[in-house]
C-alpha cells in the first residue's frame, strides 16, 4: 500500500499527503531532473519513506 497520495500541483511543486495523517503534507519539486541530496533526504524523512520505497 502506498504511504503517500497525490493532492495537487501548483507550478513546479507537487503536494502529497500521508495516509493516516492527512495534515502531513510533503512538497516535491516536479520539474527537476536531479534533486539535491539534502532535499531528497528531507523528503524521505518527512514522508516516512525509505529510499527503496521511493524508487518503486
Automatic annotation (TrEMBL):
Recorded superkingdom: Bacteria
In its UniProt record, a GO molecular function of this protein is:
mRNA binding
Which terms are listed as keywords in the entry? Endonuclease, Hydrolase, Nuclease, RNA-binding, Stress response, Toxin-antitoxin system
UniProt keyword ATP-binding present: no
The family classification in the record reads: Belongs to the HicA mRNA interferase family.
Protein name, entry field: HicA toxin of toxin-antitoxin
What organism is recorded for this protein?
A: Parafilimonas terrae
Q: What is the lineage of its organism?
A: Bacteria, Pseudomonadati, Bacteroidota, Chitinophagia, Chitinophagales
Amino acid at each position: 500500500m502506498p504511504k503517500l497520495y497525490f493532492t495537487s500541483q501548483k507550478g513546479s511543486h507537487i503536494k502529497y499527503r500521508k495516509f493516516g495523517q492527512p495534515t502531513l503534507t510533503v512538497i516535491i519539486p516536479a520539474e527537476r531532473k536531479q534533486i539535491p541530496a539534502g532535499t531528497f533526504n528531507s523528503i524521505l524523512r518527512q514522508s516516512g519513506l525509505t529510499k527503496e520505497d521511493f524508487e518503486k
